[in-house]
Amino acid sequence: MAIKKSELYSSLWASCDELRGGMDASQYKDYVLVMLFIKYVSDKYAEVPFAPIQIPPGASFRDMVALKGQADIGDQINKKIIAPLANANKLADMPDFNDAAKLGSGKEMVDRLTNLIAIFENKALDFSKNRADGDDILGDAYEYLMRHFATESGKSKGQFYTPAEVSRIMAKIIGIGGAGTTNDTTVYDPTCGSGSLLLKVGDAAKADVTLYGQEKDAATSGLARMNMILHDNPGALIMQGNTLADPKFKDGEALKTFDYVVANPPFSDKRWGTGLDPLHDPFGRFQTFGAPPAKQGDYAYLLHIVRSLKSTGKGACILPHGVLFRGNAEADIRRNLVRRGYLKGIIGLPANLFYGTGIPACIVVIDKEDAQARRGIFMVDASGGYIKDGPKNRLREQDIHKIVDVFTRQDGSDPKYARMVGLAEIEKNDYNLNLPRYIDSSEAEDRQDIEGHLKGGIPVADVEALSRYWAVCPRLKASLFKARRPGYLDLAVEKSAIKSTIHGHAEFAAFMAGIDVHFATWCAQSAAVLKTLEPGFHPKDLIEEMSESLLYAFADRPLLDPYDIYQHLLDYWAETMQDDCYLIAADGWRAETYRVIETDKKGKQKDKGWACDLVPKRYLVARYFAAEQVAIEQLGADLEAAAAELAELEEEHGGEDGVFAGFDKINAAGVKERIREIGKLGGKDADAADELAVLEQWLQLAANEAALKKRLRDAEAELDALAYAHYPRLGEAEIKSFVVDDKWLAALDAAIHGEMDRVSQSLTRRVKELAERYETPLPQMAGRVAELEARVGRHLEKMGFAWK
C-alpha cells in the first residue's frame, strides 16, 4: 500500500527528534534535508545512465546504510558519501556529519546517526517512482519540513524560507503560465534563500522554464541547489554571493535581464551597501531612480529587480510597508517609479506572516510592458484575511484565491478591499502609497440611535442595513418587524421566536431548498467524475479542477461567500481527501485492512486492532450493520444508566455516617466481606438490616453493570468481526460509492449546511441584538431604577439604616 502524505510528513519530522537536542533548528535542518536529498537521488538516479545527478559508486544511500553502528560512522559518511556526491555534482557547503559539537561524541554520535539513517530506511519512503508532473510528494514534504524549521528557528533565522502561500500568490499575479510562456522563458530570484519562491513560480509556468537564483548565505544556497533537484529542476542555476555587490548573472558587463523576477529580500537591510558605491554603480541600477539610503536597503533590491527585467518583464517583490510612505531619498525613488509607470500594483499582507519578523509586509508588483500606458496603481488591502497558526499568522486557501482573483481581474467592486487608484490621486498625496490613504478597510461603527434609546423602537436604518437578506426574502422583514412610528419599528414576534420565524418563513425555506438543490447538482456532477478516477491520475490536478468548479458553482449564490465554501473543500482535502486520492492514484480502488501495531519507548509492540484508510469501519457499519450498531448504542446507554445508578447509591450512602463510610475503596470483595460480618450478628440489629439492604442493592447493581459491560464487549467484538470479514467481499463499485458518496461528498455536504446555518444564525443574532438594544426606553429604565432604589431604601429603613 502506498504511503500517505501525512505519514510521510510525520516520518520525516520524526527524524528531527534524533537531532533536536543538540542544535538549533537552523542547524539540524541541514542534516535532515541532506539525508532526504541522498535518499531521493539514490532512489531516483542510482545506476541510471546520463542522469542529471551523478551517484558515484559507493556513495548511495544503500552504502550509507552499511555504515550504521560503526564507531567512525560520522567520518565515514563524510568521506564515502558526502564528499564524492558533492564533488560529482558541484554541491558546496555540505554539513559535517562528524561534528561532535552538534552530534555528540562516541556512542552518542553513533546512535544518533544510526537512528537517523534507520528512519529513512522505511520501505514506504521509496522515491524511485516520484513524479515530476505537479504531484511531487517529496517536494511537498520538503516544503513541510522547511516551514517547520523556519517556525522553530525563531527570529532572524527564517531567511531560508518564504511562506508557500505568499509564494503562490506571487507566482500567479505576475501572469506567468499564459500563452507567451515557453521553454525559453526565464525566471530569476536575486535573494532566493532555499529556492521555494522560485520553484512556485516555476510550477505556475506550466512549462519547463529556466530558473536562476542567487543567495548570499553559503549553506542556504546549498539548500536551494538540493531543493531544485528534489523538485526535478536539476538544470536550475543557483549561484552563491552578494547579489547587490557581486551579481553573478551578467551579459558581458551588464546585468542579465529576465522575463520574470521575484524576490523576498531581507527587510530593511542596513548593510546592503557593503562593497558597493551606490553613486557609481557599474550596473546603473540607481542612476535613473536615485540611490537608496545607506541604512535602508529595501529599494536597493527593488531597483535591482527593475534593472534585471526585460523591457516586457514582470516582477513581484515582498517589502515592508515602510517603502510605501518613508520620505527623503526613498520618496524620490518612489515618485520616479510611479511616474515611469513601472508599479502595477501593491498588495498589503497580514502582519506576523513571515518567519523572520512580525511586521506587516506588502507585495510590490512591477510591470514594464504596459508602463507607458499605465494611469493608475491597483491596490489591495488583504491584511484582514488569515488564521492563527501557532505563533504566526497564515493565509488560508480562500485568502490566496481571493487576492489572486481580485488582482488578476483588477476588480474594484469592493472598495474596502481593493481599488484602482489613479495617478492624479497619488500625485495629490505627494506619491505616498500607504494603503490606508486609499482603502478604508475598517469596519463600519455600529451606531447608537439616541431617539431609539429615549423613545424606544428599532431604527428603520438599522433594519434596512440588512438589505442583503431582504433582497432574498423580501416578505420576511414584514414577518419580523411592525411599524411603531415614522422611522422606527418594533419586533413583530417574541424574541424567543425570532429563529423559528426565520426558519419557518416560506421565502427563507425556499432559499435553503434552492441551495440544497444547487449543491446536489454539483455533487452529482462531481461524483460522476470522481468515480472514473484510475490509478496514475494526478491528485493535484483533481483538487484544482474540483475546487474551481465549486467556487464557480457558488459564485452567484446570495448570502453565501463562495470563498468560504471553497475553503471547506480545501480543508477537507488537507485533512482526509488528499491521502485518499494518493492511495487511489497508487493502488486503485482497494479497501484493504491492516493491523495497527503500536510500539512503546522500550520497543515492545502491541496489536491495537485493525483499520482501513480508504473505507473506515464506521462507513461500512452504517450501511451493512446498522441494526447491530443501534443495539450496541443501546447497550452503551444502558451501561451509562447502570453506572449512574450505582454512583448515585454510593453518593447517597457515602457520607460520614453512611453505609460506605468505612470503605477505603468500594468493590465487590469489600461489600461481600461486610455482608458476612453483618450475618455473624444474627440479624438482630435494625440498623444492620438497613445497611444489609443497601449492600445487597449495591451488589445487584454492580452485577448488572458488569453484565452490561460484558454484553457490550461481546457485541462490539462480534460487530468488529462481521465488519472485518465483509471487506474482502466489497466490489469496486461499492468502494467507490463508500468513498465518494458516503465519505467525501457527505463531509462536504455537512460543511455546506454549516454555512447555511450560519446565514440564519447571523440574521437571528442581529435582529435579537437590535430588539434588545431598544426594547427599554430611557424614561422607562430611569423609572425602573427609581422603583428599585425606593425598594432598597425601604428595606434599609426597616433594618435601621437611613438611605438618602
Q: Can you put this structure into words, describing what you see?
A:
With 804 residues, this protein is of the alpha/beta class. It is 51% helix and 11% strand. It has 28 helices and 18 strands. The strands form five sheets. The protein has a nine-stranded mixed sheet. A hairpin with a 2-residue loop joins strand 4 (250-251) and strand 5. Helix 19 crosses helix 27 (732-774), helix 22 (562-587) packs antiparallel against helix 27 and helix 24 (626-652) packs antiparallel against helix 26 (686-726).
Summarize the structure.
The chain has about 800 residues and is an alpha/beta fold.
- E-strand count: 18
Name the quaternary structure: single chain
Mean pLDDT: 88
The proportion of residues in beta strands is: 5-15%
Q: Which structural class matches the secondary elements?
A: alpha/beta
> Roughly how many Å is the radius of gyration?
35 Å
Shape: globular
Strand order of the largest sheet: 3-2-1-6-7-9-8-10-13
Query: Percent range for helical residues?
Result: 40-55%
Q: What's the total helix number?
A: 28
Q: Which spans have pLDDT < 50 for at least 5 consecutive residues?
A: 131-135
| Largest sheet entry | 9 strands, mixed
EC number: 2.1.1.72
Domain DNA methylase adenine-specific: 135-446
Keywords: Methyltransferase, Restriction system, S-adenosyl-L-methionine, Transferase
Domain N6 adenine-specific DNA methyltransferase N-terminal: 10-120
